[in-house]
Amino acid sequence: MSAEDTVKVDAIVVGGGPGGLAAALTMAQGGLEVILVERGEYAGSKNVGGLFYGTILNQLIPDAFKQAPIERTVSKRSITYLGDGTHMSLTFGADAWSQPPYNNTYVVHRAQFDRWLASQVEEAGATLLEGMVVDGLIYEGEGAGRKAVGVQLRGDEAFYADVIVLADGANCLVSEKVREELAMPGGKIKQEYAVGVKEIISLPKETIEARFNLKDNEGVAYDFLGVPFEGLIGGGFIYTAKDSIHLGSVARIESLVESGFTPSGLNDRFKQHPAVSRLIDGGELLEYSGHMLPEGGYDAIGSLTANGVMIVGDAAGLLNMSLYKEGTNHAMESGMYAGQAAVAAKEKKDYSRSGLALYEEKLAEGIALKDVKKYKDLPDILTSAPELLSLYPKKINQLMVDYFTVNAEPKAVTQKAAMKNFMKDMSKIKLLRNAFKARKLM
Amino acid sequence: MSYNCIVIVREVWDTRDLTGSVLADNGSIKDSMLTRFEPEDMNALEMALRIKDEHGGKVTAFSVGTPKQVDVLRECLYRGVDEVVRVDAGASSLGTQAAAQLLADAIGKAGQYDLICVGVTVADGESSMLGTHVAGKLGIEQVSYVDAIEEIGEGRVVGKRGIEMGYEYIEAPLPALLSVGVALVEDDPRTPRSAKAMLKLKAKKAEIPSADVDASAVTSPVSIAGREAVPERAVESKDVAAEDETALKSMLDDVLKGE
Amino acid sequence: MGKILELTVEDKLYTTKYETDSRSHIKVNGDLCRTCSSKPCLRFCSGDVYKINPSEPDQVTVNYENCLECGTCRHGCPFNAIDWQYPDGAMGVKYRYG
Ligand SMILES: Cc1cc2nc3c(=O)[nH]c(=O)nc-3n(C[C@H](O)[C@H](O)[C@H](O)COP(=O)(O)OP(=O)(O)OC[C@H]3O[C@@H](n4cnc5c(N)ncnc54)[C@H](O)[C@@H]3O)c2cc1C
Ligand code: SF4
Ligand code: SF4
Fold first, then answer.
1. Which ligand has the minimum distance to the alpha carbon of residue A17?
2. Domain boundaries, given as residue ranges, for chain A
């Protein structure tokens, strides 16, 4: 670090979530002098999640998951439709998921996991500045040549760097401002957000293992749709931790506003469904949290590179908002590519937009962007055919009820009546059209 | 005129995390329980730093023991103290008297000082007498529950203390020890400053010097002999409509009867 | 604490840890609220921060101490009346589990 009271390094990262940590780690491993600024007292203290997908982390830190604070590995996933007093699930488990690498899916407490990851990044040589807020960037030059040269910290301090990686997450005040100040082109559509709230509910380890039929460190990831979320673009989830359960709901903000539910109230509706409440019976609340998710999808992603700047992770809109809610690995992948681009830029001594072009090139070839692209029509589909989330599952659920109900009628009669009931209120053409759309959900 | 101030700072259990899950089966606190910078000590630190801001001089922070999770001495450097001294407590945890003796030994060796500031309460135990004991061992005056410094100069300090009907001002000769109180005065001057990024960058990996004192020389005859968890008590609650006078009255009767 | 199914949002927020700042990081432009009849901030906020001001029912009070920093209010207020900034470093919500 240079003399006296100006600090100038190769790279500054804004935000200590998976995106920023992957960027800082990659750059530190590539020999760059890196400062990572995180506004929380420790990395993770502002972050909310549940599952951590480990593919990228395993590339950056071999065997990371042997040391990381993991709650459980996910050996079983399911999608459940919650009806009025009924429920219908599709569960999938694989024996292989109980063996390393555990399908790369882990249940973690992000506040603890991100903190651990930050300690690894520090060990790799990056400097962590926690408890510091970045209020904006500092620029030089005008017009197309305008470039970012440093960060403005709260409390009237400034640090300088050749390149700045913005990883400020879903609630990204800095990225939003920089986009405007550097006139970075936006996406085809405006970014849209969902709000998620979550309750961490403590239960004895044995109770969890008995209730979810688990051995040792196995865990489940259950997703839910249906009646509690009726009229909303949203759903719920349950992930099992060691001796607690993550139970949360996510809903698109404008649909929530229309519905009149509060985020907490929505989670209560979900929690109180009989198929759900029995899973948490006797539990005690340990923590309540709230966080946003960017849900605009592929079309909402704008330019991610400018002179001296790259945007990664949720701030870039790289979240797959299908049932998978994949954000952690996408954030890490984009962070890793941004880190690689910065290392290459240093070699060429060119940190301009074109000097950093490698970032978006790698991103285009990688998995994150392809996955987000695959689901690119999802926001549209969910808005244009809300039946997919409510009416159809409800109908199928009713079909099950009618079909399996044991009564005095012969089976043929029951089944015919069930089918008739099923087709009631359903337009066949629309059904076909929606079946086509629904393929894109999976 | 400038002043040399000393602050005594402590890392304490974060009692906000004290829920059933942080207690081990034998009732002891698990390692997973988080710690924090004692908030009253943070106020004491701010008091000392403000004297330096206004009059110049130097602030030195002392702390007993090695950090568990939060290095309070490093935090002091991030906020602008000039020097820090770690006082090694040896293997065992010390009683208040013994900790005070070690601190007094260390402070005695650190050279001339005008004022010592320390928080008055500690969230994790009944050791809010630490300051008093340190002053006693050093043979200097002490004033407790000081909310703010009204004036300092000419060999004396005037502290301001919130009392029931207003404030009182206490004057003491220097050097003196002030324990910083809990009462909030109107123009609370103690909102602690934030860490500075530059200082943090510089001090993150700085070496923290240890005081040259002998922990084995101080022994404490006081120790925790055992712990016992209090069984949880189920409290029944009742909803009573505010307009329903008979229900309210019967509830009041129940309370008076001790039900 | 009550049974897990009966917790109010206040009960829930009580379990969340905060370093409360003495200054608010949220400012609301009351002139705009006056014209806002639906007041969605009373509903969309995950931290139950906005409440009707009892003495001025067309205004809202801001319990910034409860803020979970989700950012929903920055997108949900129809009049952009809410100026939300990050709290100072290390202040505000501090998740233990997250
Ligand atoms: C309820 C919920 C459930 C989820 N479940 C899953 C899941 O099961 N699987 C999955 O893969 N993903 C899940 N996600 C998504 C996942 O959490 C995010 O995609 C991921 O955290 C994004 O990483 P990031 O690094 O981009 O941002 P974040 O993790 O949000 O990190 C951003 C960081 O930047 C810091 N910061 C912001 N601004 C500043 C500033 N100005 N100065 C300094 N620091 C700043 C923040 O404090 C934060 O630490 C879930 C999200 C939610 C809300
Ligand atoms: S939604 Fe916005 S404008 Fe309406 S009352 Fe709330 S803060 Fe005011
Ligand atoms: S960020 Fe806004 S919506 Fe979220 S908790 Fe805070 S005040 Fe409420």
1. 1
2. 7-72+103-188+300-376, 193-294, 380-441
Q: CA-to-CA distance for A157 and A134, rounded, in angstroms?
A: 10
Query: Which helix (H) or strand (E) element contains residue A404?
Result: helix A391-404
For A204-272, what is the HEC assignment?
CHHHHHHHCCCCCCEEEEEEEEEHHHCCCCEEEEEEECCCEEEEEEEEEHHHHHHHCCCHHHHHHHHHH
Look at C15 and A109 and tell me if their CB atoms are within 8 Å. no
**CA–CA dist A289, C15 (Å, integer):** 9
A36: chain C residues, CB-CB within 8 Å: none
Instruction: Per-residue pLDDT tens, chain C, 98 aa: give them.
Output: 348 999 999 999 999 999 998 889 999 999 999 999 999 999 999 999 999 999 999 999 999 999 999 999 999 999 999 999 999 999 999 999 99
Q: Which residue of C has its CA nearest to A256?
A: C44
* Identity of the amino acid at A429: I
Domain A193-294 fold is: D-Amino Acid Oxidase; Chain A, domain 2 (3.30.9)
Q: Domain B5-227 belongs to what topology?
A: Rossmann fold (3.40.50)
Name the residue at shortest CA distance from atom 7 of ligand 3.
C67
Query: Do A129 and B201 make contact, defined as CB atoms within 8 angstroms?
Result: yes
Encoded tokens for B198: 């530059």
Residue B62's closest CA among B34, B39, B43, B41? B41
Closest CA to B179 of B12, B41, B68: B41
Q: Which amino acid is at B4?
A: N
B32: closest chain A residue by CA: A112
CA distance B244 to A296: 51
Of the candidates B34, B188, B194, which has its C-beta nearest C89's C-beta? Answer: B194
Specify the pTM. Answer: 0.90
Class of residue B186 by CB neighbours under 10 A (exposed 0-12, middle 13-18, buried 19+): exposed
CATH no., domain A7-72+103-188+300-376: 3.50.50.60
Q: Kindly calculate the radius of gyration of chain C based on its CA atoms and give it in whole angstroms.
A: 14
